[in-house]
């Protein structure tokens, strides 16, 4: 067996004793690395996942071939980061397992958001956050935290790029949220320092002066901080995390969850009844003028209103006599069936 085959087989052997539905996750990264890597295992909602990080097409093919038919689902990183299309390879190789696309970058943002909210007991208003980096992740997390009413500062080696990103985000941020600012040389105390750089050991001990004893440090790019910074921060009693994206494993499972399946099969839809002259609609389905909107098309429990034919709900004052009759009739029908 090659080293890669042994790594993959070891993870597959682990799944043999697990009763949960099995998942294999294959993702890639923009950072160059040496060889295939196994990532921490994950379990949630009746699913157990083994996970692999690949950077070359042969590594991807080895994983896909080994996993096919031996796991129930294969989650494929849909984001192309190195000119390597994992989904194209998966669609050609996988014959037995079910292929599901996933977006690891989005799961990373959800994990970071959840970690910060947990650490500060979901109170981020007016906290100062220094986001280091000017790429996909740093931009997305800056927007997310500003929407949570934190004061966000963008910092990178390319100050002009940071300015452009901040200006762009401020165009779309909610009107009353704090504006995101770009900083060339940070010189104040920050509650949180986040880093999403693609390079290793960039942030040194000169950044320690930006922290106080209650600050939080998150390494989202992995190994972005120099050892001297980490040692100094820990000596000052500052909490430091290397972001573990398993926090948001549930995010990747949503499409497989019973709740989402039930929404598409029971909640969302249109029920036609020609004898009544109108339809029941729910779950975002745009009804024709006069259709009745309910909470779910299968066994509804609530009348939401009457569709205006434009994607909205009519005011009760605008109901026709026939529409009033429809609503009362359906309301009484639901009431009798709930007894």
From TrEMBL:
Q: What residue stretches are annotated with the Quinate/shikimate 5-dehydrogenase/glutamyl-tRNA reductase domain?
A: 122-203
Protein known as: Shikimate / quinate 5-dehydrogenase
What is the originating organism of this protein? Sporolactobacillus nakayamae
**Which is an annotated Pfam family here?**
Shikimate_DH
Q: Which domain of life is it from?
A: Bacteria
Q: Please list the coiled coil stretches.
A: none
Extract the InterPro entries matched here.
NAD(P)-bd_dom_sf (IPR036291), Shikm_DH/Glu-tRNA_Rdtase (IPR006151)
């Amino acid at each position: 067996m090659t080293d890669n085959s042994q790594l993959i087989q070891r993870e597959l052997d682990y799944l043999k004793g697990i009763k949960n539905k099995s998942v294999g996750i294959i993702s890639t990264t923009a950072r160059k690395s040496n060889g295939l890597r196994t990532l921490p295992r994950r379990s949630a909602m009746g699913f157990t996942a083994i996970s692999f990080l690949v950077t070359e097409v042969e590594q991807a093919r080895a994983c896909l071939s080994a996993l096919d038919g031996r796991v129930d689902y294969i989650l494929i990183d849909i984001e192309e980061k190195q000119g390597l299309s994992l989904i194209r390879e998966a669609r050609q190789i996988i014959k037995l397992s079910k292929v599901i696309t996933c977006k690891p970058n989005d799961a990373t943002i959800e994990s970071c958001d959840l970690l910060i909210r947990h650490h500060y007991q979901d109170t981020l208003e007016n906290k100062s956050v220094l986001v280091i980096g000017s790429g996909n992740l740093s931009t997305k997390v800056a927007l997310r935290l500003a929407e949570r009413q934190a004061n966000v500062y963008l910092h990178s080696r390319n100050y002009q790029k940071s300015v452009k990103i901040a200006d762009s985000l401020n165009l779309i941020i909610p009107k009353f949220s704090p504006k995101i600012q770009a900083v060339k040389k940070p010189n104040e105390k920050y509650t949180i320092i986040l880093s999403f750089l693609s390079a290793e050991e960039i942030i040194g001990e000169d950044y320690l002066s930006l922290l106080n004893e209650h600050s939080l440090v998150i390494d989202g790019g992995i190994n972005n901080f120099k050892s001297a910074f980490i040692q100094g921060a820990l000596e000052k009693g500052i909490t430091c995390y290397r972001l573990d994206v398993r926090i948001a494993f549930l995010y990747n499972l949503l499409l497989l969850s019973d709740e989402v399946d039930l929404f598409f099969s029971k909640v969302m839809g249109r029920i036609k009844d020609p004898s009544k002259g109108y339809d029941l609609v729910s779950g975002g389905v745009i009804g024709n003028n006069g259709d009745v909107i309910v909470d779910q098309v299968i066994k509804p429990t609530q009348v939401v209103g009457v569709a205006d034919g434009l994607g909205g709900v009519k005011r009760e004052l605008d109901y026709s006599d026939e529409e009033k009759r429809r609503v009362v009739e359906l309301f009484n029908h639901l009431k009798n069936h709930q007894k």
